[in-house]
Amino acid sequence: MKSIYTAISILCIYLLLTGCVKKEILDEIYLIESIGFDHSKEKSNKGMIVGTILYPIYQPDQPPKNKTLTAEAHIKKSVLQEIQLQSANPIVTGSMEIVLFSKELATNEGVLELIDPFQRDPAVGSGLYLAVVDGEAKELMEGNYGIRGNATYFSNLIENNIKNEDLPKTNLHKFLFSYYQKGQTPFMPQLKRISKEKVLLNGICFFKHGKIVHTISPQEMFFFRLLVDKYSNGLHRVKIDEGEAAIRSIRSVHRFKLTNRFPKEVTVQIKVHGIINEYTGTKVTPKVIDSLQKEFEKEIDEECKKLIESFKENKIDPIGFGHFMKTQIRNFDLTDWTDSQFQNLIVKLEPDVTIAEAGVIE
């Protein structure tokens, strides 16, 4: 009998608690899927931020319509308040997929003050994507990309390039971790509008003190990922005298080793496995495979060293050498890491490429 009373009491408490939850009907709210930030073009509004929200309007048996609302303000919360004055329904952030920053804004003003409210908002997940726009965020958001809505297109574009191409893993959580982690520099992918129906991932932007200080091209992204992430499925083309090969199904891992303390020296071991999917020569022989492996190793060594030198020149450390040194040397001081110590760090590469088999031959 006592157990019955206990069960009834628990049920009553559950019903009371569920009754306290605020109800929101989907047809009566606007679910923001993306928000973009630009500089104001008006001279009279110098220092103002243009915020653009993107939300879908769902219709029966039709793709969702992409709707945008724009307002100007000094801070992100004020932007949403200003946009709310234009909206017939409440604006909700619980469906956010991506936040976009114009490159001009991210370079001149920085993004930290704009990102901060998102990490404090319990309705926003840490898997939220962040991206820089090579151009205006508002213009990018006003296109028409795919049948699932623009925000979903942007997030799928980034997710696909993480899974199958050369973009290292990135999201709000990883950006903030790298920013607050001493000895490591945060980065974001860069998107560019090609037309009203096409968007291109055209590089990676690196930040220092919340502002963009350096950008790498899509051609450099492959080698950057070898240094900071692993490949589970990739593609790279290698040229030798006998022909050109497309090496697919690339899998890679990297490992850092502290090989000297005075002067400080780090060796990066990079192991790459792949198969030849296409080859423009006549026949894939063991000699050809050996030549491809050596050329690929040479290319990795040269291009990765160029990247590291460019990071030193810009006084950033997106690879995380400083964080690695902190884990290897007790009481290691990172105060002047990117400005001084990183410049003197000797980095050696040990690439090891294995081509397991050959596929289609042209």
UniProtKB/TrEMBL annotation:
Localization: Membrane
Entry keyword set: Germination, Lipoprotein, Membrane, Palmitate, Signal
CC per GO annotation: membrane
Principal cellular location given in the protein's record: membrane
Pfam families reported for this sequence: Spore_GerAC (PF05504), Spore_GerAC_N (PF25198)
Annotated GO biological process: spore germination
Protein family according to the UniProt entry: Belongs to the GerABKC lipoprotein family.
Native species: Robertmurraya siralis
UniProt domain Spore germination GerAC-like C-terminal: residue ranges: 202-359
Record-given protein name: Germination protein GerYC
Spore germination protein N-terminal domain residues: 23-192
Membrane topology: Lipid-anchor
Gene3D superfamilies xref list: Nutrient germinant receptor protein C, domain 3
PROSITE patterns: PROKAR_LIPOPROTEIN
